[in-house]
Every structure is written in structure tokens, then in C-alpha cells.
Amino acid sequence: MTTLENYLDWLRDAHAMEEQAETMLKGMAGRLEHYPDLKMRIEQHISETKDQQRLVKSVIDRYDTSNSTFKDIAGKATAMGQAMGGMFASDEVVKGAISGYVFENLEIASYTSLIAAAKVVGDQEGERIFTQILEQEVAMAKWCLDHLPDVTQKFLARSEAPNTEAKK
Predict the structure, then answer these.
(1) What is the pLDDT of residues 124-137, one digit of tens each?
(2) CA 79 to CA 76: how far, in whole Å?
(3) Which of 4, 17, 46, 167 is most buried, by CB atoms within 10 Å?
């Protein structure tokens, strides 16, 4: 594969990754009842994620190529499976918060690589877009990490309380 072909393939991967992120985030936000701060931040990131999809698609479109429908569908199916699996875990909110942090770091690594690739192919607009997205992903990862102790402690307190649901 040429450098440009690799870059375009990674762009399609990024678009599929954002589709997967949206599905996962919506699934988690839709089930959260007792963790309003987490739900609010996830809903904010859903909005950012939709904008990120649009921005990545704008880079794909400039190269007159299409996003990979197969990758988008596979990403959504994976996210749906993860969401469905989490629904049955008694500690869903904690596992979801941990998974969210891990996924944000995957996105950080992906956009860091895309920025480097954009520099090599001379795509200054792509570099600008990926830097903007990277900043949002870093902020979300930091938020997840900073709030993980609180989510964990709230979950543990709720799980100890009689007649109280803790998982969501």
C-alpha cells in the first residue's frame, strides 16, 4: 500500500471508530439513572462525537473516497455487543466508566497517528481537524479518569444500601 492508501484506510477506520463510540455512548447514557454527572458528560461527548464523525467524513470526502460501510456496521455491531453485555453486569456503571476511559485512549492514539500521517501526505486541513478532535478526546479521557473514583465510590455506596439499585 502507498502512504496515501494507508492514510485513507486509517481515515475510514477513524470514521468507523466514531460510529462505534456514538453507539456505545448512547447505550450507556440511555441506561444511566443514578449517576447524573456521568450521564451529562456522556451526553456532551455524544454531541462531540457526532461532530467528529462529520469532520472525519469531510476529510474522507476531500479525497473523493467513501467511508467503509462495512467498517461502520462492524463498529456499531461491536459497540452494541459491548453495550448488551454490560446490561447484565451487576457493576455495569463501573465497567462502563473503565471501558469509556480505555476507548478514549484508543481514540487518542488513533488521532495522534492520523496527525502524523496527515503531515506526511501534506494534508494540513486533516492535521488541523485531527488536532481539534484529539483535544476533545484528551479532555474526555481526563474527565473519565478524574471521575472514575467518584463513580466507583457512588456505586459501592449504592450497592451496600438496602433496596437500592447500584448498577445504573
Answers:
(1) 999 999 999 999 99
(2) 5
(3) 17
